[in-house]
Amino acid sequence: MKTPLLIAAIFFTGLTFAQEKKSDTLQTKKIEEVVLTKQVFKKQSDRFVYDVAASPVTKGNTTFDLLKQTPLLSTTDDKTLKIAGKNNALIYINGRKTNMDAESLTQFLKNTPAENIQKIEVITVPGSEFQVESSDGIINIVLKKKMSDGTNGNMRMSNSQNKYNSSQASFSVNYRKGKLGISANLSGGENIQAQSYILRNGNDFVKNESVGDIDDPNKNLGGYLNFDYQLSDKSNLALSWNSWANKSYGSTVELLNTLKTYNSDGSLDKTDITRSSNLENARNYNNSVNLNYELKTDSLGSKLNMNAAYLIYKRFQNSNNKTIVENPAGVFTQLRQNVLQDIPQIVNNFSGTVDYIQKFKNDFTVSVGGNFNATKTDNDTKNFFNYYDANGNLKNIDPDLNHFIYDEQIYGAYVTFEKKFSDKFSGKVGTRYEITKSLGTSEIPDEPMQKFERNYNNLLPYLSLNYAINDKNNISYAFSSRMRRPSFWELNPVKNILTEDNYTQNNPFVKASSTYNQELTYMFKNSYFLILNHSYFKDVITQVPLQRDIVREGKTYRQLAYIRTNFGDKQEMSAMLGMQKTFFNQYLTTNFNIGVQHNINKGTLNTDPTTGQVFDTYINNRESSSIVIQTNNTIRLDKKKTWFLGVNYFFVDKQQIELGMLKNLMSLDVSIKKNWNDWTFALNVNDVLRTNIVEIEDSQANGTYNYIKNDQFRRGGTFSITYNFGNQKVKKVRDIEGASDAIKSRTR
């Protein structure tokens, strides 16, 4: 059910869930009558730096827990991290992107002790040297530099209870001996992702409602294995392998559909009731290998970094979608329609990157580099539509076959200049030039081969300026231009059936969208902040809900299709005021943010660009303003720093998105944690008030309306036990960026 039914998933990508916490106060020490101060949170050049070694919330936490306490970061689902106003947060370790998929990365962060971390850098507007898309930001985790030989690791087990029970376990180990460093991780788990839906659409004459549940069982197993060898004092060679597998067999959708037609005077004409029953089996595999070479060229920090990577992603998915009506005895057993779908996807990618950083003695840095990606996707889709007559007898079979192959090459080069002019003023300017060449071919039996060719070049400038007015006041500005390429599954022209008259349609004609980001930041005393942000999105890639009347066997039905396409432009403007402080001798650490966001949407569509079918015109030329509030609080309950209570809350006011008006969302989360020697016991209760439920409604001037209510059963509890073993000072030789990382995010 993942691909066709994650309709609600796109709702969250456009939300500005309140950032999170800002700076910590100054830490004070007394050493022989001398008072020293250290800044815990500060602005440096193009990034915010959070010195967690000086923070009171580090002890006993995992890296993920620590990131949730980091200024400007937030999470609303305890799985993904967001940066102030950003759609996504990319994780880097020691300046290099982590080479693992989203699920295994989450487990890695939740099982890495926070004591290993020196500082966390938050880059809200990344420079030209970073391969990011759209308005993505970067979280760079800097590990402590102390190293010693030995072995360490941890084991973690957790059990969660939402609508269903789930469990996870992981084992991580690091080994260091002389010039060789080895790190490995193995994790797995089982869960059932449950959702409920209420879908309504229609007009004054035809109204449709679908109500029901989705149960998606998952089994996951994955991990990584990294070898890093120090060839000399100046060079290193590393080999990394990452793997993740997911099995989802027996995923079900059960919906009851009620169609009502009305006469011109508003009286009810007839009612048609059906059941949609969908059974899906899916499995996917993600494997990547990365070879890295790094050479330090001088004592100032200049270095050469080269990567070569191969990635293969496979997904196999088949489903049996039945539309069932009542038999003469009034029981839902008689078939009206049966759709058999086979939707595989195979992605092969080869990638290479070269980066060189030259540092000069006068605080001047020049960075140059390039990248190459060659990707081929193979999608051999087979659909068979079986139609039945009024007596339930098979009437005809309509095959829908499409073998879609997509080839893409991306060439990129960048140059960045960074200069510290004085202790108060610094700046960074750069540009990235990207060339994209792609060709899609669609083979349909008895039809001429279709070709979809897209070639485009993009110049993506970047600028950031930072000025420290004095010790208490800092102001900075950043601008960047980025692209957002469609994910490979979005290009596959496949139709995913939800009900007889409700489906999603992907689109090989989708082109890359452009994003222009501006951000102005003011900080006071490293504890209070104001962030003004403006983002302009051109040719937004999204799903558009299109409706039309269709006549079948003399009856009028209302069809609803979620069409994947480029849908106009939008703007997001936000102002966020926040505070991050500790009180009562560090017994209370509080992060509080409040802000306002203004969205402007402009888009019009009435035709499916893949099939050419014409629908009622859908228009979203609307604006909305909304309030965003978030606070995270950590309360130390004892002097020994072994008991901690967490109370977190967020509220997002209603706002206009591509699909209509999203109603307000909020969640109250509570946690308690106990540190005991090398053990950590934690209990987290999420969405205590059960208010994190998605509702979207839209009504058009032509009388068409659409309503969605999606409950993902976020209220629940998780109990976890973590054990750290071995020499906790052991660190990896270094963490390696994978050349295929920019491609991985587009496979999901």
From TrEMBL:
InterPro entries: Beta-barrel_TonB_sf (IPR036942), OMP_b-brl_3 (IPR041700). Residues 296-723 form the Outer membrane protein beta-barrel domain. It is found in: Cell outer membrane. Keywords: Cell outer membrane, Membrane, Receptor, Signal. Pfam families: OMP_b-brl_3. Residues 1-18 form the signal peptide. Gene3D superfamilies: TonB-dependent receptor, beta-barrel domain. PANTHER family: PLUG DOMAIN-CONTAINING PROTEIN, TONB-DEPENDENT RECEPTOR-LIKE BETA-BARREL DOMAIN-CONTAINING PROTEIN. This is TonB-dependent receptor.
